[in-house]
Design goal:
Length: 131
């Protein structure tokens, strides 16, 4: 087997959502919760007597921020699992791990390979085009 990189090199991934997916879900939930909290503050700022109208967005804020925290914890656990398996699905993670595209399960950067972020992004584009 050749050590030269090509976009068809596949890597076995752990089952379930990857760290990058969990992190993105966490961010989306947290931002939604913050948006709902801003709505609550706006309603209470305009007229404190309308506090009843702030109950629904307050419930959304609490639920979304809690879900975001839960998903962030799940992403951290998944990060450790992926590292033990010898890879990562997050571009900014350690260069000591293989960087694998979570959508295609193809190797983008080998562990320790000195690539710039631009080079990695070009490879990622090639991997996704090679589907």
């Amino acid at each position: 087997m050749s050590d030269a990189w090509h976009p068809d090199i596949r890597r076995e991934l752990l089952p379930g959502p990857s760290e990058v997916v969990l992190s993105n879900w966490s961010l989306a939930c947290t931002l939604t919760g913050i948006g709902a909290a801003v709505v609550v503050l706006a309603v209470l700022f305009v007229e404190p007597m309308l506090w009843v109208w702030a109950l629904a967005p307050a419930a959304v804020a609490v639920a979304c921020i809690a879900a975001g925290g839960f998903l962030d914890s799940a992403a951290a656990a998944r990060q450790a699992d992926e590292a033990r398996a010898g890879y990562t699905t997050v571009l900014t993670e350690s260069a000591d791990l293989d960087f694998v595209d979570d959508r295609t399960a193809r190797l983008v950067r080998r562990a320790g390979e000195p690539l710039t972020v631009h080079e990695v992004r070009l490879r990622l584009r090639r991997v996704r085009e090679a589907r």
